[in-house]
Design brief:
6-stranded mixed beta sheet; 23% strand; 272 residues
Length: 272
Amino acid sequence: MRILHLSDYAGEMLRHSEEQHLKATHDEAASRRRHWMAETELDAARARKPFWLRLLGLSTGEEREAQRCVEEEQQRIERTGSERQELGIQVQRQQAGAEGEKVLVDELATLSDEWVMLCGYRNRGGETDHVIVGPLGVWAVEVKAHNVRLNVVGDKWSWERLDRAGNVLETQPATDSGGRTWARQVNDVADQLAALLERNDRRVLVRTAVMLTGERAQLGTCENPEVDLVSTRSDDLVKAMTDAASPLDHAASQAIVELIKRDHRYHNAPQT
């Protein structure tokens, strides 16, 4: 299989998050240094306080100002530390997502060079991880690298995070940041792609798949998922591509690839 990287949105987001995490780490360290200095100043102010004020338990203006600085720096430590932790979690998730996309690419790499995988395709419907074009048709594939159990009933998508014993720790909707289900996310892109192909006299059915690539990913209930395939196994995708074939000759495949590349360039260009 030939791999064409149209964009590296996941990689760009990861690099941005890593930069933010590094900045937050430095900010927290700077806050801790300032806090230590403020505490040193507070100790010095207390040492300079007249003995009679100590006996009466009274503070000086210098001492109160130093105490205020200590408290402000403590608040900064808490704020920057919380930000660093949140960004660390975000980086881990994005690393898993980028690795999950790579896993599918590697597992499908043994397909012949008649197949082309276009990574990071964007159109009016949004962006999806992969579009696969080859002798058996066209597939839009959304990859989710989550170690969860996915449940699907029609347009109701949700995931469960499990502990090692299989107990449910949390349940969340399986949606993107805009509230679309994972099915809707890939279908919106596929619908726009199918319309583009039809406008260019290429009436091709664009099939859709949602692939879970987490090492401990599972499928729970899966009824009427509104996509052609939901799976944790790349060989299921290869089998579905074979079973639901919409044959294309080499010239048609190449023409479709060029249309996708051109369409991506248009929708990925900076808006003026």
